[in-house]
């Protein structure tokens, strides 16, 4: 259903040139990073204030127009596709850092601030925002998908680092959740409810984030292992030993090959761990030595330490470029990306089973992972339009998810549900899906907020 | 309204002697730790399984009987009072540690396990559960009130340490929330929603908790300060310096006097900080030295180190006994206990303003606090039945809450809302109260779950 003319008129009156129905603008906001596709939205809005978001949603609510929030468009599960048509609300013009309260280690920002922009702004304060999903995503989008990434093992996820929100509800009501205090027991944890709600309950228009002190000393390294099992077992042993890793990332041989081809590195084309330590010079030295001893027990060799900031930046740029590097292994391919997370003791078996399944399929599917959390990904490369490959990739992804659920894990550690993981939600949540549906119906009774996402059979 | 006869018959048939309407049992479950009072409940049930809780709630739901969860009865805001009559569901017979998965640093327990019982069970594993509100509370109750306490500055609150729950909803439906993975982005954070919901959305029947490694080295000390301002400013400076405190507790002169009288200690009767460091021998030594230097800058003197486990236990037993020790300052008194939490930079002003207000009132009101989180309490001693004192104490409490809200803090850092903080909820949450009410109505449409608590004007 296209947007009714009175709604279009009201939006144009409100936003002027910041409301568009042009094919170019719609197409730009109909893209997805992965194999998920949908027709473009009917229109795009670029509000610049909470008040404009509120009025935009009030108009959409009155006319039954679906509303889809948009940040940098880097989500991997089609979260921002306009599967039911409607209006994409692009929040990237709301990109101001509103206040940095260094003495409280907090920042208040608009949702269109990206994590790199925030950290640039924070550089002189001695503080930083640690959550790092790789892409230079908008912090509003990261909150909406409960993102995490390479540093969650040390600093937690968006759940742990968002203190308070301003949210515009479906009917345009503006609420504030949370406080600036370190903790609160005053009522339901609405901040936690909106973080990870994927735009299905409201649009985030302001975030108060917890900042962390820039570590005095940082050391990063990459280290090779003879076998995948040994690399992953080293991770489990490291976490169980309590070494406070800032990062501990797994890269399989296929991904190492992708880095070599794409980034010009010279890794041996087998499994690796990429690690980082944060602390004082003494603790970093101590932690790195303990890790080195453990890694040697599992056959780890060829430690390559990145000692300068430039070398470290290059190392993590390589890791952050993994998605594009792996895509380049098969020119023209798109990807089905998996994202299971399992309890630490089940990680070696989960990775081994996934590797065996991928190998049996004949697909190219490099694996990387934030393995310190028990979270790993395979990026299954398929050609667009090849139904057989798509079915094979989806079968692998589903089996990985089922194995994760069988050991108490989750179908998505950090990417979120979007359209991709929707069919697996009942298997994970059982009767609790009814509670999620009741909350959705209570807060968005007409179902305009990002319909077709997250909850099965809702819209 | 008393419990209808058919409901009583059904509950008696289900639970036998574990359902009681005796005056003695009702009176035991009509108590409160503080000045809040209400008539006793109409009946008490002691289920021993999730299935019994489910059937109990289904009966209550069918007959419109209010249901109030009960743990150790140590909450401070009248959370478990039967203000609307009905059935108290005492969960203390569900007290089994179901599974300890040491390799994943997790335990699954029933809600009636107390924190001390769990830590006794964990002793041989090298792990412990850190959240420590002082009272030997049940972990189900601690989750329901989003409790924290002395160690939250290092290990977080119940929000951070509950991974998954089993919950029985108002109509008897049993759901599971969360996973055993370290993180998940699969749908709304229902675990976070039920933690801190104070029994208003369901009854928690199982918890999966995050455990932590027992620190290799522990050092505790108490240290005096010339003035309250200097003690509190030392806390702010300590937190801002990034020293990883395991505990940093404030005790004012009145509370020190209470300890001396009640516990036979010999503290100078002025402000103190009680601190603890966890880590390796090297890091503990380093942290303690850095703190010692900072404390000296603020006039801290007379460091008394508790070096043996017995001395440390005595130190924290003293702190944990603060509530009873302070009550004993005025024999026969009851207490209005405040619980604000403010951003760290506002802590010195908040404590100073509270102290001035208490002094002006003429009431005895010792102050203690988990000041590393910006959270502090005054325990305002009043005689039961003295309306003038009650009004004065409530006035102080309300002004403390208003000052906390004015700087972005919260009316309750860890005690929860119960009946006591209910009148302040609108001031804290504004329009977000409507979202809480919508969630409550969606999950408990007949309003049987702990009516009269948390949300204003709901029941």
Automatic annotation (TrEMBL), chains A, B:
Gene3D superfamilies per record: 3.30.465.10, 3.30.70.2740, Vanillyl-alcohol Oxidase, Chain A, domain 4 (1.10.45.10)
FAD-binding PCMH-type domain mapped to chain residues: 37-214
Cofactor: FAD
Single GO molecular function: FAD binding
Any Gene Ontology biological process: lactate catabolic process
EC number: 1.1.2.4
UniProt cross-references to PANTHER family, sorted A to Z: D-LACTATE DEHYDROGENASE, D-LACTATE DEHYDROGENASE, MITOCHONDRIAL-RELATED
Family: Belongs to the FAD-binding oxidoreductase/transferase type 4 family.
Protein name: D-lactate dehydrogenase (cytochrome)
Organism in which the protein naturally occurs: Paracoccus lutimaris
């Amino acid at each position: 259903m296209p947007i009714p003319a009175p709604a279009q008129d009201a939006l144009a009156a409100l936003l002027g040139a910041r409301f568009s129905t042009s094919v170019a603008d719609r197409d730009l906001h109909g893209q997805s990073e992965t194999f998920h596709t949908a027709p473009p939205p009917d229109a795009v809005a670029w509000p610049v204030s909470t008040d404009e978001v509120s009025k935009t949603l009030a108009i959409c609510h009155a006319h039954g127009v679906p509303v889809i929030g948009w940040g940098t468009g880097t989500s991997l599960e089609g979260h921002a596709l306009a599967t039911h048509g409607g209006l994409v609300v692009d929040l990237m013009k709301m990109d101001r850092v509103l206040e940095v309260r260094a003495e409280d280690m907090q920042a208040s920002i608009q949702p269109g601030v990206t994590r790199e922009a925030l950290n640039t702004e924070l550089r002189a304060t001695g503080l930083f925002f640690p959550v790092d999903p790789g892409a230079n995503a908008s912090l509003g989008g990261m909150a909406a998908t409960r993102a995490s990434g390479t540093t969650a093992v040390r600093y937690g996820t968006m759940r742990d680092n968002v203190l308070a929100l301003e949210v515009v509800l479906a009917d345009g009501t503006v609420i504030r959740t949370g406080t600036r205090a370190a903790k609160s027991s005053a009522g339901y944890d609405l901040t936690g409810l909106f973080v990870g709600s994927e735009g299905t309950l409201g649009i985030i228009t302001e975030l108060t984030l917890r900042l962390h002190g820039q570590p005095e000393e940082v050391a990063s390294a990459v280290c090779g292992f003879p076998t995948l099992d040994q690399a992953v077992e080293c991770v489990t042993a490291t976490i169980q030993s309590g070494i406070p890793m800032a990062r501990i990332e797994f890269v399989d041989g296929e991904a190492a090959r992708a880095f070599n081809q794409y980034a010009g590195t010279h890794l041996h084309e087998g499994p690796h761990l990429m690690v980082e330590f944060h602390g004082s010079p003494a603790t970093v030295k101590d932690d790195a030595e303990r890790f080195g001893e453990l890694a040697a027990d599992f056959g780890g060799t060829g430690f390559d330490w990145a000692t300068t900031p430039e070398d470290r930046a290059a190392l993590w740029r390589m890791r952050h470029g993994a998605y594009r590097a792996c895509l380049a292994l098969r020119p023209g391919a798109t990807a089905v990306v998996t994202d299971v997370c399992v309890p630490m003791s089940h990680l070696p078996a989960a990775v081994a089973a996934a590797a065996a399944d991928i190998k049996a399929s004949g697909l190219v599917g490099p694996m990387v992972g934030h393995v310190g959390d028990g979270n790993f990904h395979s990026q299954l490369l398929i050609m667009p339009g090849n139904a057989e490959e798509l079915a094979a990739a989806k079968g692998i992804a589903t089996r990985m998810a089922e194995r994760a659920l069988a050991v108490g894990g989750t179908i998505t550690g950090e990417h979120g549900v979007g359209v991709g993981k929707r069919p697996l939600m009942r298997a994970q949540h059982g009767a609790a899906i009814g509670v999620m549906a009741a909350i959705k119906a209570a807060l968005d009774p007409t179902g305009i907020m990002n319909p077709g996402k997250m909850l099965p059979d809702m819209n």
